[in-house]
């Protein structure tokens, strides 16, 4: 309804928005061979309308200006909404509703969780001092929102060595005896698939291969591959975890941060 009202305002206020100054429209008026019926009555969407080409261009230019000023981003974090969060279940469970029945509740709680996480990262410096950030919110086909966040860290907190990276990013199964809480969280949120020969019908399978390149390889230390991408430490320590009735090892784990996972209890991928 809000979007419809915005479109109606733009459509009926084209003169106030000075859309006659657009060069493409002026050019079309001077082409005598074009048929007028093929043009129709065009309404130009301004940069204030979310999702319009001008809006997307403006965000792109802003993002490139940030990169030009502070450099390349250092951390890429993806937070996916967990429909089993307590605040969501407290509303849905008594009414016997699913998460898809109340997208308004899902979106509100997810926004609150993200703002809290962003405060921890930018103000409390959970992963280091942040000098800039940018994000985008997307909705999956089943309706759950997820956010993709880029963090630009201060030069003193950019984790230049593999040992420092291992302090904030883990791709290994924690000890069930030493930390059963973290073990359960990893089991519920941070296991990919399973796919490949374990489950060939997994949604990530394309032409007989995993589109996310799982399972990964065992590796004793974190290192850079030939293309400059990090390959995280996945030791063959014998630890396993049960996911969808399939036993998997470290090769199927999505990289995570223990502090973020423990606090927000959702799928939080960090690269």
Brief overview:
The protein is α+β, with helices and mostly antiparallel strands and 271 residues long.
Structure description:
This protein is of the alpha+beta class and 271 residues long. It folds into 3 domains: 63 residues, no CATH class; 86 residues, no CATH class; 90 residues, no CATH class. The protein is built from 9 helices and 10 strands. A 4-stranded antiparallel sheet has the order 2-3-1-10, sandwiched between helices. The chain starts with a helix and ends with a strand.
Strand order in the largest sheet: 2-3-1-10
Proportion of residues in helical segments = 25-40%
| Secondary structure: number of strands | 10
Structural class from helices and strands?
alpha+beta
Shape: globular
**Helix-strand string:** HHHHEHHEEHHEEEEEEHE
Most strands sheet? 4 strands, antiparallel
How many domains, in number, for the residues?
Answer: 3
What is the rounded Rg? 24 Å
**Mean pLDDT value:** 88
What is the terminal separation in angstroms?
Answer: 38 Å
What are the segments in which pLDDT stays under 50 over at least 5 consecutive residues?
none
SS element count, helices: 9
- The fraction of residues assigned to DSSP E strands is 15-25%
Protein name: Helitron helicase-like domain-containing protein
InterPro entries: Helitron_helicase-like
Domain Helitron helicase-like: 2-151
Pfam families: Helitron_like_N (PF14214)
């Amino acid at each position: 309804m809000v979007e419809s009202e915005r479109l109606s305002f733009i459509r009926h206020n084209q003169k106030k928005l000075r859309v006659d100054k657009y060069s493409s429209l002026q050019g079309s008026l001077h082409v005598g061979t074009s048929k007028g019926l093929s043009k129709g009555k065009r309404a130009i969407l301004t940069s204030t309308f979310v999702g319009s080409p001008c809006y997307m261009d403006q965000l792109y230019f802003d993002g490139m200006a940030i990169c030009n000023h502070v450099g390349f981003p250092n951390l890429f974090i993806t937070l996916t909404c967990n429909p089993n969060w307590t605040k969501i279940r407290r509303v849905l469970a008594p009414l016997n509703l699913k998460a898809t029945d109340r997208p308004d509740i899902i979106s509100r709680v997810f926004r609150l969780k993200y703002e809290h996480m962003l405060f921890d990262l930018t103000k409390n410096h959970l992963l280091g001092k942040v000098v800039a950030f940018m994000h985008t919110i997307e909705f999956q086909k089943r309706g759950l929102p997820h956010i993709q966040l880029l963090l630009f860290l201060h030069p003193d907190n950019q984790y230049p060595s593999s040992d420092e990276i291992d302090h904030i990013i883990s791709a290994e199964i924690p000890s069930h005896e030493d930390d059963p809480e973290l073990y359960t969280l990893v089991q519920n949120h941070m296991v990919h698939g399973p796919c490949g020969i374990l489950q060939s019908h997994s949604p990530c399978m394309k032409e007989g291969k995993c589109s996310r390149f799982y399972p990964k390889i065992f590796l004793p230390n974190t290192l850079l591959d030939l293309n400059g991408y990090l390959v995280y430490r996945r030791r063959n320590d014998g630890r396993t975890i049960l996911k969808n009735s399939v036993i998997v090892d470290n090769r199927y784990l999505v990289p995570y941060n223990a502090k973020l996972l423990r606090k927000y209890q959702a799928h939080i991928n960090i690269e």
